[in-house]
Amino acid sequence: IHAASAAIQNLKIRKEENRQFFTETNLVLLSKLKKVMIKIAKYIKEIREFKWLRRYFTSKSIEETFRLLTTEFDGYISSLNFSIIIELKMQNEKDCAALKHDTHETNQLLLQLVESVNYNKEFRDDVTKIKDGVMDIKECVQDIKNIKDCVHDIVTMLKHFEEFSTMKKLFNNLQSSQYKSELKEEDFIDSLLNLGDFTFAERSRGGIQKWIRNSDHLELAFTEINSNLLSKEHQKSLLFEVSLLKKLRGSRDIVQFYGLVKDEYRSKMYLVTEWSQYGNLREYYKQKKLKPSIKLQIALDIALGLNFLQACQILHRDLRSVNIMIGSHEHAKLANF
Known about the structure:
Keywords: ATP-binding, Nucleotide-binding. Residues 189-337 form the Protein kinase domain. The protein has 337 residues and is an alpha+beta fold. The protein has eight helices and eight strands. A six-stranded mixed beta sheet has the order 1-5-6-4-3-2, with helices on one face. α2 packs antiparallel against α3.
């Protein structure tokens, strides 16, 4: 192209000397030669900018396009009888050799790119597998922790069962006349709570008061017991029975007992249990329309509570809606058993 451009430029400079060259036919050939030179220049630019790489394996090969352009170029040069035809032919051979070399290097570059992409993909796959493995290990550790917590809860529950069983046997023995006289204050003293450890919160629901334990702000229910109607022996039996019920801490489906507290100033005694946020079941379903899913959950909670009491050899003799309390998260708990 440079040689042809130089020859054309030389013709322009020596226009007067080469007037006979600029015939109508040669002018047409020069115009076509210019167009093919523009095509060749554009073609070379595309190769430099790698625009062909995306179409490398689907369109005509580089050699084929190069051959067509150079053939067209050589034809116009031959028709114009330029003196540079031989030089252009030699340059063409050099360009073909260089093009083959560049094509080989391009192929090698593409292979390296493919290998790099494959390596990166394999590396990402390995990293993903490692991450999945770490997550599996974390899940296993969490499962082990959950099992450990479950075992701890079971051991605690069995301990409470054992304590409850021992006290129940003692309580049954104390009901007989030969043991009643042996009932002493030290057998139930742990049931007495200090009223000063609690703060009154509000009066609520048929004589049941809401109090707050000062140490941890736990909400508790104080149910008044008319101690004036109880004989001294009955009061002792009540205190011992509450001590027994305090041991039933292995189930979340029954109301938890915390003990008894005396108000010496008002001469009153209160049974201390956990506070039920929504009151009893009768109050709850009168105030709120229950979804079928909530009804099923309440039924399941009641069944689990009865199953727990049966395991403790306790028969609930007054199972009705007023003796089923609804705590937080709409969880049902058995009471007054």
